[in-house]
Amino acid sequence: MTRAASRFRWTEADSRTFDACGDAVVPSRAEQLETLCALIPAGPDETFTAVELGAGNGTLARAVLDRFPHCRYLALDGSPYMRARLRRALAAFGPRARVAPFRLEERGWRTVLPHPLRCVLASLVVHHLSAGRKRRLFADVAAHLEPSGALLVADLVQPAAPRVKALFASQWDRAARRQSRLLPAGARLAGGDWNYYRLEQSDPVDQPSRLFDQLRWLRSAGFPAADCFWMRAGHAIFGGYRAALPRAVSPTRRVTKALRAVTRRARRPLRRARGAAARRAAGTGRTSRRSRRTRSRTPRPTPAG
């Protein structure tokens, strides 16, 4: 998540501010949460494991754990303040929820992800990686997912043109003003300091990539079913599903029998042709079926007594 460009690194103060104002500055946050939950490849009573990258104050984690009562959840975050918030927010879920530190750009945590792993979620965190590191992250996650697993990302995307950037900025401003009215007076803000598309000076902490490029990277990383599922004010929910591993299925008895029948029919003309050639070579002709029937019906002469 972005914030004022006067500071080029995320601080614990930024974490506290976002914790207090996230419901105002994230466009359509409730709708985003519902969309992410609906995209998780699992049934409501199914047992599976999910991991969230940059879990923040636990808003998405609570939504997933409530919706899937048998889900096991690993919430990763790099901020000590946010990890403390996570532990308090997820305490009611007991051993189903676990909190751990990580650094998004490093790869060590990826090698010890839970197994089997059904889903990896990431909200407003992947845009902190460069293009090359995004591609590496997508490939590393794909290697650890179940065949039916998914990587689901909610994040900022880089606009394709200045006109699109202006549209994203105005949509974000309107959403923040509308949502801030629902917060306590002390937590209200217009959202301008958090609007990435309003910044005149680029912030090296924020490195969003174009949506088209990220979908292409997902497909090449091992997610053939990659797509964008929701988008508003420069915030997109996108990701990919891994293809199920092909299963070797033996042909059924019915199919085998049908194939053999087709083969026999295909061989009949060849057998007939060979038989006719052999009879011609021996100087004998083939007696027709009608002749055989007539001959068999002709009464044999009765021997003299």
Describe the structure in your own words.
- By secondary structure, the protein is α/β, with parallel strands linked by helices.
- 42% of the residues lie in helices and 15% in strands.
- The protein contains nine helices and seven strands, in the order ααβαβαββαβααββαα.
- The protein has helices at 12-25, 29-39, 59-67, 80-90, 131-144, 162-180, 211-221, 253-282, 289-297; strands spanning 48-53, 71-77, 97-101, 119-123, 150-156, 225-232, 235-241.
- Strands 3-2-1-4-5-7-6 form a seven-stranded mixed sheet, with helices on both faces.
- Helix 1 (12-25) packs across helix 6 (162-180) and helix 5 runs parallel beside helix 7.
- The longest helix is centred in the C-terminal third of the chain and has 30 residues, at 253-282.
- It is elongated, with a radius of gyration of 34 Å.
- The N and C termini lie far apart (119 Å).
Outline the secondary-structure elements.
Layout: H1 12-25, H2 29-39, E1 48-53, H3 59-67, E2 71-77, H4 80-90, E3 97-101, E4 119-123, H5 131-144, E5 150-156, H6 162-180, H7 211-221, E6 225-232, E7 235-241, H8 253-282, H9 289-297
Parallel strand pairs: 1-2, 1-4, 2-3, 4-5
Antiparallel strand pairs: 5-7, 6-7
